[in-house]
Specification:
Helix content is about 10%, strand content about 25%. It has about 300 residues and is mostly beta strands. It has a nine-stranded antiparallel β-sheet. The chain has a three-stranded antiparallel β-sheet with strand order 5-4-14, with no helix packed on it. Strands 11-10-12 form a three-stranded antiparallel β-sheet, with no helix packed on it. It is globular, with a radius of gyration of 18 Å.
Length: about 300
């Protein structure tokens, strides 16, 4: 299923949340009846984060090696560099609307006629994967390394993982687009929601995570269901002029990373309140687990 218009799907006021999928009982409690996520009822919360800075660093693939990567745009944690880990991110600042989110998010720089295009913002969506049992979702651990997409890909990638689109239009593309005036360009990245339960990273930076099975469950090798993270990076139309390239190489090589760093009590509350109850909640805020300020779009 192609996921489009994600932002439109989640911008609802938490107080208006209703329905909890199939079954009842306390979310996540032993013996709870399953709550299967569907397009109509999908537990979700989100937090927008501003553009912070750009560096030729990657604290996952090139940890501790400053300047060894292609140029990345960083969002969320304001201190992210090649040497960052969850502890340093938590100790630094964040420009996410939820001040509990110190996660470092990053994507390769988009270039227009060879000049970097500064993104306007990034939105991070934490959701129950469609088809999965919401009561089984667990909060992701701090320090978890996550990568979506392959920067070396010279062929179109699966649109379930990487896609580009103009505003909320339904058409998607495997490569960046020139959007009509008034529509921003958006890169959407979908991260695997199944974790092996032991490793925060792996030698290839990927194998500790796995995709959800067709039956809506995680494979035995990766039994822990965590929120399905989707990242949407937005670029201003006015700046996207001239030939488009990615700092990482092939135009089909869209990708992104996340190094998880949340206030652990806060995200545990979000998972319990929104995801395990299969409720579509609005953006979190610094004062409450459920924020009521609707995003401007």
């Amino acid at each position: 299923m192609i996921r489009t218009g994600l932002a439109a799907a989640v911008l609802v006021i938490a107080a208006a949340c209703s329905g909890s999928g199939s079954g009842g009982g306390a979310g996540g409690a032993s013996g709870s009846a399953p709550r299967i996520a569907t397009i109509e009822e999908q537990g979700s919360f989100n937090t927008p984060c501003g553009y912070s800075h750009s560096l030729p660093d990657d604290p996952i693939v090139h940890a501790g090696m400053a300047g060894m990567s292609h140029r990345h745009d960083f969002f969320g944690a304001t201190t992210t560099d090649a040497s960052s880990d969850a502890t340093s991110l938590m100790a630094g600042g964040t420009n996410c609307r939820s001040v509990a989110d110190h996660t470092g998010y990053w994507a390769p720089a988009l270039l227009a006629a060879g000049i970097p295009v500064q993104p306007t913002e990034m939105l991070a969506y934490y959701q129950v994967p469609i088809g999965a049992d919401a009561t089984k979702v667990q909060a992701p651990p701090n320090g978890l390394e996550m990568i979506a997409g392959d920067f070396t890909s010279e062929a179109p990638q699966d649109s379930e993982v990487v896609s580009w689109q103009c505003g909320f239009t339904p058409e998607i593309s495997p490569v960046p687009l020139h959007c009509p005036t008034g529509m921003d360009l958006r890169l959407q990245l979908h991260f695997d929601p199944c974790w092996n339960g032991d490793d925060l990273g792996s030698e290839d930076h990927r194998s500790h995570l796995a995709p959800l099975g067709d039956d809506g469950s995680c494979p035995e090798s990766h039994p822990v269901l965590i929120p399905e993270l989707t990242v949407e990076v937005r670029y201003p139309t006015s700046a996207v002029e001239g030939d488009l390239t990615l700092a990482s190489g092939p135009l089909t090589g869209g990708h992104g990373d996340a190094l998880v760093a949340w206030d652990e009590d806060h995200i545990a509350g979000e998972v319990e309140t929104c995801l395990r109850e299969n409720l579509n909640c609005n953006v979190v805020s610094e004062t409450s687990r459920l924020g009521f300020d609707q995003l401007d779009d």
